[in-house]
Write a structure and sequence with these properties.
With 290 residues, the chain is an alpha+beta fold. It contains 2 helices and 14 strands; from the N terminus they run αβββββββββαβββββ. It has a single domain, classed as Jelly Rolls.
C-alpha cells in the first residue's frame, strides 16, 4: 500500500516539474528578446524605434524577422536611369579631385558605393547630359559617410551639389554647394548682409528640418529639381521641401546650361571603414524649357 501511494505521488510531481521552466519563461523568466539596434545617426522623429517582438510561450522558437522596408517606387512621370543590374548608362570620372577609383557596384538590385582604397573617393556620372530636370532617389547610407547629388555637372565633377553629408555636423538635402564652382550663392538676396549669428540660426533651422524628416536606418526619398538660367534649385526629403533658392548668376562650368547627373563618394576622412552608401532607385523627369 505504501509503495503504491509513493508511486502515485511521484507520477503526479513529474508533470509539475516539467511545467515550471515553461511557466517561468512565459512570466519573463527566460532569455530577453532582441532589443532595437543602436544607431549613431539622428533618430527618426526624435524617437527610438521599438524593439521587435519575440515569439514566446511554451518554448516556441523566435520567428525570423520580416523585412518591413517599403517597396521601392518610381513616381509617376519619372524614368529610371539605374536598371538595378549594372552600371549601364553611367561611368566613373577619371579626372575628379576626390579620386578616380570609387567602388560602385550593384548587389541584389541595389547600387552600393564606398571608398577604394580607403580614403580615396570619386564620382559616378550619367553618360547623358540634362538641362532642366528633376531627380528622384531612394537612399540608405551608413552613418559617418559624405556623399552628394550633383546637377549640371562636368566630366571632372564640377557642378551644383545637393549636399548629402551624413555625418556629424552634416547637411542632408537642405543645402546647395558649388563643387569646383566659384561664386555660387543660392541663399537669396541679403544673405551677404546677415551677421554670422543670423546665418547660423538659419542653418540650425535647416538642420532641424532634415533631422525631423529623416528616417534613420530606413530608405529615404531624396528629390531635387534644377531649372532655368540662372539655376533655380528645389530639394525635398521624404516629400518635405528642404531648400529653395536661385543662384545670383549661372556659375556652372563655362556657363553651361546643362550637364551630367552625378553621385559622390567623398575623399579623405569623411567616411568610415567598411561603410557604404546605397541607392535602390534613381529616376529623372525632364522638364520643359522656361
Amino acid at each position: 500500500m505504501r509503495k503504491t501511494l509513493l508511486c502515485a505521488l511521484a507520477c503526479a510531481a513529474i508533470p509539475a516539474l516539467v511545467m515550471l521552466p515553461l511557466l517561468a519563461q512565459q512570466r519573463g523568466g527566460g532569455q530577453p528578446g532582441p532589443g532595437a539596434q543602436a544607431g549613431a545617426g539622428p533618430a527618426r522623429g526624435g524617437q527610438q524605434a521599438a524593439a521587435p517582438a519575440r515569439a514566446g510561450g511554451r518554448g516556441v522558437a523566435a520567428l525570423p524577422q520580416v523585412n518591413e522596408d517599403p517597396l521601392p517606387k518610381i513616381p509617376v512621370g519619372f524614368t529610371s536611369i539605374f536598371n538595378g543590374k549594372d552600371l549601364t548608362g553611367w561611368h566613373v570620372s577619371k579626372t575628379n579631385h576626390h579620386g578616380t577609383t570609387p567602388d560602385y557596384r550593384v548587389l541584389h538590385g541595389i547600387l552600393i558605393g564606398t571608398q577604394q582604397p580607403f580614403g580615396q573617393g570619386g564620382v559616378l556620372l550619367t553618360d547623358k547630359r540634362y538641362r532642366n530636370v528633376e531627380v528622384y532617389m531612394e537612399v540608405k547610407p551608413d552613418w559617418g559617410c559624405d556623399s552628394g547629388l550633383f546637377l549640371r555637372t562636368d566630366e571632372a565633377g564640377g557642378g551644383y551639389q545637393v549636399m548629402l553629408d551624413y555625418l556629424p555636423g552634416g547637411t542632408m538635402v537642405a543645402g546647395i554647394y558649388g563643387e569646383r564652382l566659384q561664386g555660387v550663392n543660392m541663399n537669396g538676396p541679403g544673405w551677404d548682409a546677415l551677421t554670422a549669428e543670423q546665418r547660423q540660426a538659419i542653418q540650425a533651422q535647416r538642420t532641424a528640418a532634415w533631422q525631423r524628416a529623416w528616417k534613420r536606418e530606413e530608405w529615404n526619398a531624396v528629390r531635387a529639381r534644377v531649372e532655368g538660367n540662372p539655376p533655380r534649385i528645389t530639394t525635398w526629403l521624404n516629400d518635405e521641401i528642404m531648400f529653395q533658392g536661385t543662384d545670383t548668376a549661372n556659375h556652372a562650368t563655362d556657363g553651361a546650361e546643362d550637364g551630367m547627373i552625378a553621385i559622390q563618394i567623398h575623399v579623405g576622412n569623411r567616411w568610415r571603414p567598411g561603410a557604404f552608401w546605397r541607392w535602390r532607385v534613381i529616376a529623372v523627369k525632364e522638364l520643359p524649357d522656361k
